[in-house]
Batch of 2 targets.
Target 1
Amino acid sequence: MKRDLRLGVNIDHVATIRNARGGGHPEPLRAAKVAEAAGADGITAHLREDRRHISDDDIAQLMASLEVPLNFEMAATDEMYDIALRHNPHAVCLVPEKREERTTEGGLDAAGGFDHLAPYISALTDAGIRVSLFIEPDTKQLEAAKKLGAPVVELHTGAYCDAAGQEQDRQFKRIVEAADVAEKLDLECHAGHGLTFDTVGPVAGITTIVELNIGHFLVGEAIFGGLESAIKRMRALMDKARSEAGGERSA
Ligand code: PXP
């Protein structure tokens, strides 16, 4: 089913709950299959250096069993590069990683980290993997992503989601402007981080954004009404906002 706004469901925090007890429940793969059935267009999983949530085995299981594409989030390190090449996922999203952070706190510094990132982006691309860079909605970062040859950027929506009132409006404007710059630079534009039922609509209404990656809120909502229902509601809110903004849906 082709849609002009895809939903990637991030299942990292299913693994966070599993790992809290060190056993096997709840299984990220089972959550991914529920997400697939509920209308996710892709599954996203971040294999962190410290393996605090997703494990190497999770990635192997997802690659073996998913019908929708896997978006493999990773830091630009030799270890992660080798793992990506071993599994050959549909897409890799390069993210910054600091051990002490609770989540991916800011975007990748594509401009400042140009020389470090360039060989990873070209090698992953040569392997046939679609590379995206998770960056702040900032022209300098978008221009660097373009120069680096990444075909896709994912705009960090965390500052917008965390803000309120006028500051939220200001942060939202940065996303709108960045999506515009991405289009001019011919970069495919995704967005994500911190999105909820309340914050997803305006972002889904930006018609040049073609994919949203959402995780923590969906896993949290699943506690109250189930994962399937949370994903379906998110999907419906995205579709409503997109059709009100004049975007077409071919689904
Ligand atoms: N996109 C990227 C690149 C991320 O690192 C994350 C968080 O792991 C997300 C999207 C999803 O963010 P959240 O879990 O807050 O919805």
Target 2
Amino acid sequence: MTQNYDAGNIQVLEGLEAVRMRPGMYIGTTSSRGLHHLLWEIVDNAIDEASNGFADAVTVTLHQDGSASVTDNGRGVPVDEHPTLHVSGVEVIYTKLHAGGKFNNENYAYSGGLHGVGASVVNALSRWMTVDSYRDWGHYRMRFTSEENPKTHKIEAGKPDGPLEKIGNTRRRGTVVRFLPDDRIFEDVHWNSQQVSRRLQELAYLNRGLMITFTDERVKEADKRTQTFCYEGGIVDYVCYLNVGRTPVNDDVIYFEGQRDTIICRAAIQYTVDYAENLFSYVNNIPTPEGGTHETGFRTAFTKAFNDYARKIGVLKDKDANLAGEDFREGLTCVLTTMVKNPQFEGQTKGRLGNSEVRPAVEAIVAEKLADWLDNLKNQEMAQHIVGKAVKAAQAREAARKARDTVRSSKALEAQPLVGKLAAARGHHPEDNELFIVEGDSAGGSAKQGRDSRFQAILPLRGKPLNAEKKSIDQVLSNEEFRSLITALGTSIGETFSLTNLKYHKVVILSDADQDGAHIRAILLTFFFRYMKELLVAGHVYIGMPPLYRVAKGSQVIYCYDDKELEKVTKKVGKGYTLQRYKGLGEMNPEQLWETTMDPGQRKLMQVSIDDAAQADRLVTILMGDKVEPRRDYISEYADFNRQDNFELPEGQVNPMRKALEKA
Ligand code: 1YM
């Protein structure tokens, strides 16, 4: 057969239509996450204008009609004619796809690689968009729509309603962009107020002195609509905020910043009496929970500076080996931000910086600045304290190593009654295997009988495991519940944690839908968060959702997971049904437990994600730590525990961390 290539059957994707054809290529996903990506794209442009020194206020508003708007008080987007394209700057920026987002790379040195796909992508994926530019004493406006062409029946993406229009004269400066995400593209066009608010707060911390105002006009109570975030101390304030709930060694926050070539690095560090290390790093305002070259540079320089100092003051003698980096970082809370041209994000969730030139640059900056800090007379007390703490940490590490060796000598373990509690799965493929951590022996018994033992394992928990927050690694390792869990998972914990040995790719927490169950869930999540964070980051942890009610009529049985659902179902089945309320998992027989909670074909699982590691950390600290005040404050501030917003996101991608902890 001969193929006939004429112009008509060669598909030429023109301009913004390409974005609508493959939105995933530009914004990753059309789920709720992708929706919010649109907003961050525009917010990034406003923040760029601020970090370049032209604006100091940004506002974000979620409107009742579902649209969002972003305002800055910068220079206003360019309105003059583009030299070669012969249309206004506004039209170019919002209708042409730019590889790097911006066409003037010099001024926009530090755009995030994740975002920075360009405002035109936002336009392409919106039903409409308006741009107001206040520039050179003029107010200019342009409107774009994505509508079906009545002749071709194709949607024309982000088409100008008309040319850029001058509305009038003004003394105002800046840009306002408002857009309505297209519900023909996105599965869910509902803005998550909390998600937006959190990210804006984070951006305010990362951009010292920038005033960010957030208004959610959908909120009924007028006095709860608007929040403002502005931090004169920037990341120093951020570290203090993260340490609410912890006990800092003193009020000092170590702060420094420096530059090598085009790489800028800032760090704020505060020591607490805790054991955990909390390093939160960012590149161009984007979190890097998986670390990368900037973190490596920071850690290398940090360890070296403190070891040199320990020798200088004689705590380490010539014959002594250096202390380990982790020893110096025990109890440290640190925010590290780096600005990088053309960042390369790698890793499963694109959360790791890959640029090799960044490591030596950050290392040099940190080495120089930390040496200065350690030289300063007024810092001697603090510096000596840190070294003293590190020496103790090294001793504890040695003790932990011994304890861990006991746990790891698996031959000895198999013989011990320790894992006798575990009903292992028969299959040997970790990817297929699931471990259910079940609250209580009686539920554990039902689960053991009800499961599909080919791939499901059951680990019943007796009573409450200990709260891992505030516990050192050797204390955690001496706890029997945790020891059996660690052994069952096969990963070890802390510094020696390794995902490659993970025996179950789904780890499901199964606890009752009551206060106690929520507490156990919080304790387990805290443990994973503190000692097996990668397990959470890689998405291996799930929360099982047992139903609350069983409605039976004749041969028909329907399970309901909350009161709302129950109401719907009972209305539908009409009179004459029997209702059973499950107070706990223990009340279900093995078949019911299988049907409702364990059968992959029917059950509901929620995947735990840490979309904001810093916030999650702060919350774990507040709610599981030993300070009463911050916990009480938090609980009275967020007393509405029944908000379901985290539970209704599409794709089952939720962050129940908050909810589970709130219940604790
Ligand atoms: C609410 C969103 O986009 N603000 C914004 C964007 C730009 C400028 C100012 C700007 C940049 C430059 C010169 C420059 C943009 N400019 C461009 C482009 N807020 C928002 N504020 N004058 C104004 O970089 O030289 C893209 S965005 F393409 F012109 F560089």
